[in-house]
Amino acid sequence: MEPPEPGGGTRPQRGGTRKLGRPRVAAGRAGLGRGATMGLLLLLICLAMPATSSGELRAFVVAHSHMDVGWVYTVQESMHAYAANVYTSVIEELMKGKQRKFIAVEQEFFRLWWDAVATDTHKQQVHQLLQEGRLEFVIGGQVMHDEAVTLIDDQILQLTEGHGFLYETFGIRPQFSWHVDPFGASATTPTLFALAGFNAHLISRIDYDLKADMQKNKKLQFVWRGSPSLSESQEIFTHTMDQYSYCTPSQLPFSNRSEDFKKYA
Ligand SMILES: [Zn+2]
What we know:
Bound molecules: zinc ion
Number of strands: 9
Order of helices and strands: EEEEHEHHEHHEHEEH
């Protein structure tokens, strides 16, 4: 059974009034999950900490973007339909509370938003949020590349393109990968990411029996050695997301319509 993926949304309307610039070529796409590509998703990372003496459980919630570049709709259609609004609303919402954090994943949409949609105020706020550590770029490539069909040259190209933009624009370099949606994980990707300087790698969609075995034996975290010939230079700490993947556990009232959620937002 396929892990559930939140999503939904409406078909993008063609045409629009805002010029968004020429779309860049994406080297791959993140996966083909039904409904996976629409809009902003919220991630609940429940890092189950030992219960405190009062019996409370500490949970850390980090919202993240998940907008598969080129899945179903063109980049321009996606920008007009939802992607531009995601970053506008994210920045505005982050500014409403110091406890709010967000990780941005797909560089393609952010870059188009930055170049043609963001106001000067938005740009100043992005710089501030980055400085405060409340906005973070993960992966930092133009896309979350597919691991089955994308050639290594294209993987490197799209990563270089995205990282170049981040460094030139903000002077930053992403520290962590976030490969939650490729359908299957190849050894090439962690090798490339280790060589690219990432501190840790995160995956989710792997063989179901393998994940069940890793869950049972508490092996969801491991050091991935993807290329024996490259030895230690390509080792990377890897975390495999647990049963909910990057989705919200269904038993939690986690939506912006929920009164329970508003208490913690
Ligand atoms: Zn996806």
